Amino acid sequence: MNRPLKGRGADKVTRRSTNSVTLDDVAAHAGVSPQTVSRVIRMPDLVSPSTLETVQRSIAETGYVPNLAASNLASNRSMTVAALVPAVSYSVFADTIHGLDAVLSPKGYHLFIGSTEYDREREEGLIRAFLGRRPDGIVVVGTEHTPAARALLKGSNVPVVETWNWTEDPIDSLVGFSNRDASAALVDFAHERGYRHPAFGGWLTGRDSRAYERRIAFEQRVAELFPGESIRVVDAGTQGISIEAGRALLERTLHEYPETDVLMCASDIFATGALLEAESRGIDVPGQLAICGFGDFELSRHLSTPLTTVTTPNLEIGRRAGEVLLQRMLGESSEPTTLDLSFQLAARDSA
């Protein structure tokens, strides 16, 4: 049973056969014109504080939900942005989403979030689905896509920002850093610390293109700095990206390359598992074996042996991507932007 509405003009409130409250109902309840209610919803900055408060209170009390579909058709703007990340459960990508939302939300934009699960075909499907909902902008983690996905993004007629990597051929705008340079810098660090038998571990037969770039950079830099040294690479196999896979990586490294004195992992998740497995085996880290990660996940700083890793600008990537999108969506800029936010090495107790 519907409760009677209270407020100025409440006696004028009517409902459609669907029992939904209309914009006219809110206007009657607030004692203002429908145009004023529309202005409060679409351009609140142009309304006086007292009127804004009155109309917003009426919207809350009547339970009015604006018909955004109709508004979008009229304005040709959806006030939404699509964000595609490999996994929403990883803190590094959650940070990027938080940074993006912190910039876009105050301007009235809402996020559609899709998880690609490191699968390019799945990413292509999500791009198709999101474009069908007419977002005003798109943010995607990574620069490697299927040809069809790349064509969809290029032909979408909305600003696109690729993130978390670097390429000389971006689709539109690019906000990120070079995974290759970061991985090479980690090899440099190990060399300077006096390690002589490095190994690299990760999900190398999987779909993480950024991990692949880290591996390639590792192999190239080891060949340059450690002439004559074997290239030691260990694959997590079918276990994917997990702490258990990191434990298995350590076991395989000790079995296949027992001389390894520093294990560099494609992700902090692997490195955390390797570190926990080393501790369970009584291996002195870093005395017998040093372990390094990539990404500087929140957990990495709080392990019993804090993890040496590459710190990536997760939150800043989201913020700067949001700023680039806003400039394009609001018509303040028409040109693509490329921002290299670089990275830092966090030298801690594990290496």
From TrEMBL:
What range does the record give for the signal peptide?
none
- What does the record give under GO molecular function? DNA-binding transcription factor activity; transcription cis-regulatory region binding
Q: Which domain of life is it from?
A: Bacteria
Q: Which PANTHER family match?
A: LACI-RELATED TRANSCRIPTIONAL REPRESSOR, TRANSCRIPTIONAL REGULATOR
Question: Which part of the chain is the HTH lacI-type domain?
Answer: 21-75
Entry keywords, A to Z:
DNA-binding, Transcription, Transcription regulation
Q: What is this protein called?
A: LacI family DNA-binding transcriptional regulator
One Pfam annotation reads Peripla_BP_3
